[in-house]
């Protein structure tokens, strides 16, 4: 059963990035189609579970955009203007619509990393 999920960890504070805003987009040529916006729960995940399931996920290019600057400001971190990281876009491809795609983000105000998780 295919699905897409994400999980964000705040490496500055050593905790899930609860309340971070995230949007999911599908990339179709020069077009970017926003599929959904959501706020991460206390565990740093989408409250509704999978972002896409086997009925809604299709082969193609996608983008997750994480509102990193707003999240760290909300946490009381003094960021320069402009912030080094404001929004972190992660572009990725889905080659198998029946596959499991997990896109974790480890983030601080100055660095991030991602990978295809399980």
Describe it for me?
6% of the residues lie in helices and 46% in strands. By secondary structure, it is mainly beta. The chain has a single domain (3-114), classed as Transthyretin/hydroxyisourate hydrolase domain (Immunoglobulin-like, Sandwich), CATH 2.60.40. The strands form two sheets. Strands 1, 2, 5, 8 and 9 form a five-stranded mixed beta sheet that branches.
Which range does the strand content fall in? over 45%
Any idea what the shape is? globular
User: How many individual helices?
Assistant: 1
CATH class type: Mainly Beta
- Number of separate strands: 9
Let me know the CATH homologous superfamily: Transthyretin/hydroxyisourate hydrolase domain
Ranges where pLDDT stays below 50 over 5 or more residues in a row are none
Question: Element order, helices and strands?
Answer: EEEEEEHEEE
Query: How many structural domains?
Result: 1
Q: Give the overall pLDDT as a whole number.
A: 97
Name of the CATH architecture: Sandwich
Distance from N terminus to C terminus (CA atoms, Å) equals 13 Å
Rg for CA atoms: 14 Å
